[in-house]
């Protein structure tokens, strides 16, 4: 069932993304055709302009900021839906986006249903034909329509490790002093202090409006910011307008906090199909999944689960061993990790130094060769900015001999052990458990915002036995 993809295909997809994503946030819309056949994107013109202070306007070349405190001022929250509640659709700004989308280029999949426990129901979806390339059901990453690019889900070059964290920025907790010790800027300082490591960060809009200073810090320290929706629903269960709203309010929050309009997003639980991809693409974003899963969210911790610490250690040990003994030699890694609670932060503190000795650790964007992750043209990340140089010329101790183009073997066959099932993003899986990472993120939000448990209880049940 799983669609194995060849490296050549993703290289084509990268080129297609690069050629289709043109223009700047302030320029006129790009033409609506492109030679690759991929639908050309338009620079989002429906976002307001903001005067943002306290952020770099170009890639930072100085020493990273490792100050231990961050301002707790929120954005202008009256302009947004309530944090952690479903993104409101009844709003003129949403109508403007709806009008800008070419709905003839959005496949007409019926929104998925959720059962009474919030699990996505596959019903009689034809998973053999997989007409909408529904990742949750089949792990499909190559859209069935020819005008959308393949998802980004692994680094093309063996030995590359595209470091990334979901669900941030990790807000301080008002109730739990222990958890507070791990809220941002703790992880960002740890990265800065370890070879000035860069990462790609998938942000929840609700967490950005309540803690914009953390988003500024991340941008200023050279990380790449992407969207992870407003309230973390399973996106295939959302109507078209709800999909727009979940994406819109997050784009707006990231832009108001940092001045950048991001071109990347990751669906919560990996739950995406061609309908959702097409809307995200027309809103200016590429879909990014993963090819390894640490399951870190499921360790005991605030809102986590009961996955033993040793199990997650075992995954990392296996990946390191596989790279060292030469069996992990086809493509690089995009491993799902979280900035979520004390446990996930501790796991990074434990493993990042070893990963840096074993792999070429870099942001997803760096491993993909994407140097302009935002619609604003002034932001250009250096090529090969692996991490230990603020000027971006660092190189790590890992050797990455095989070139992306030379590798044509299956991307997914490599060494994933844990990711077959049970991740937060792919939650539930074999055991059909109902733990959800998303509930844990709520405590990160400032206490003045109410939390809709209905919005958070969504858990995926995915088919078992993927070797992904
Ligand atoms: C931003 O600042 C400029 C100059 O200070 C001002 O002219 C403009 O009106 C401001 N724009 C917004 C949206 O506040
Ligand atoms: C290399 O390491 C991987 C992961 O631990 C393991 O599955 C595989 O058997 C090892 N191969 C060899 C040749 O030692
Ligand atoms: C995380 O913090 C909670 C208290 O909020 C504690 O019960 C738990 O043991 C901590 N987990 C780790 C791995 O530190
Ligand atoms: C980055 O790495 C690639 C492949 O190793 C190389 O072709 C390219 O020249 C490098 N770019 C810079 C700016 O060093
Ligand atoms: C970069 O990282 C490598 C490996 O950790 C280290 O040996 C090297 O000294 C670092 N270089 C700089 C300039 O920090
Ligand atoms: C990495 O750094 C070493 C030492 O500075 C240098 O000899 C080597 O060419 C560099 N490798 C890359 C790929 O830039
Ligand atoms: C919550 O609201 C009260 C009263 O409006 C305010 O004093 C307090 O600072 C707010 N707390 C947060 C975390 O925003
Ligand atoms: Zn998530």
UniProtKB/TrEMBL annotation:
Residues 1-20 form the signal peptide. The keyword Iron does not apply. Coiled coil: none annotated. Keywords: Signal. Gene3D superfamilies: Glycoside hydrolase/deacetylase. GO terms for biological process: carbohydrate metabolic process; fungal-type cell wall biogenesis. GO terms for molecular function: chitin deacetylase activity. GO terms for cellular component: membrane. Pfam families: Polysacc_deac_1. Residues 159-364 form the NodB homology domain. PROSITE patterns: NODB. It comes from the Eukaryota. Residues 386-446 are annotated as: Disordered. This is NodB homology domain-containing protein.
């Amino acid at each position: 069932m799983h669609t194995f993809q060849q490296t050549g295909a993703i290289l084509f997809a990268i080129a297609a993304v690069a050629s289709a994503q043109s223009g700047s946030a302030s320029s006129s819309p790009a033409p609506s055709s492109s030679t690759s056949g991929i639908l050309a994107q338009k620079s989002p013109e429906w976002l307001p302009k903001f005067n943002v202070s306290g952020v770099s306007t170009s890639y930072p070349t100085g020493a990273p900021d490792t100050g231990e405190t961050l301002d707790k001022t929120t954005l202008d929250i009256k302009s947004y839906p309530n944090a952690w509640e479903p993104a409101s659709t009844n709003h003129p700004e949403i109508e403007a986006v709806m009008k800008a989308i070419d709905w003839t280029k959005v496949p007409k999949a019926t929104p998925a249903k959720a059962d009474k426990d919030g699990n996505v129901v596959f019903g009689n979806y034809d998973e053999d034909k997989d007409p909408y390339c529904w990742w949750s059901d089949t792990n499909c990453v190559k859209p069935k329509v020819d005008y959308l690019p393949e998802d980004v889900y692994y680094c093309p070059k063996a030995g590359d490790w595209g470091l990334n964290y979901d669900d941030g920025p990790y807000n301080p907790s008002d109730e739990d002093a222990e958890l507070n010790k791990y809220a941002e800027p703790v992880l960002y300082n740890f990265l800065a202090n370890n070879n000035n490591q860069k990462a790609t960060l998938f942000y929840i809009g609700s967490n950005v409006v309540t803690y914009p200073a953390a988003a500024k810090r991340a941008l200023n320290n050279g990380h790449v910011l992407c969207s992870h929706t407003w309230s973390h629903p399973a996106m295939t269960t959302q109507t078209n307008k709800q999909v727009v709203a979940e994406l819109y309010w997050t784009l707006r929050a990231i832009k108001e906090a940092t001045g950048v309009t991001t071109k990347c997003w990751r669906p919560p639980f990996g739950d995406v199909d061609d309908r959702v991809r097409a809307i995200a693409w027309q809103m200016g974003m590429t879909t990014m999944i993963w090819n390894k899963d640490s399951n870190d969210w499921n360790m005991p911790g605030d809102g986590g689960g009961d996955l033993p610490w040793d199990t997650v250690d075992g995954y990392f040990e296996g990946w390191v061993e596989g790279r060292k003994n030469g069996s992990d030699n086809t493509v690089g890694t995009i491993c799902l990790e979280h900035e979520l609670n004390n446990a996930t932060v501790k796991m990074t503190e434990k493993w990042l130094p070893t990963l840096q000795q074993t792999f070429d650790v870099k942001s997803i964007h760096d491993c993909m060769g994407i140097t302009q992750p935002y619609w604003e043209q002034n932001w250009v990340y250096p090529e090969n900015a692996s991490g230990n140089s603020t000027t971006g010329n660092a190189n790590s101790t890992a050797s990455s001999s095989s070139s992306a183009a030379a590798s044509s073997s299956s991307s997914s066959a490599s060494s994933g052990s844990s990711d077959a099932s049970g991740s937060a993003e792919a939650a539930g899986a074999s055991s059909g458990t109902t733990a959800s990472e998303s509930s844990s993120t709520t405590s990160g939000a400032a206490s003045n915002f109410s939390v809709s448990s209905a919005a958070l209880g969504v858990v995926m049940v995915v088919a078992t036995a993927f070797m992904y």
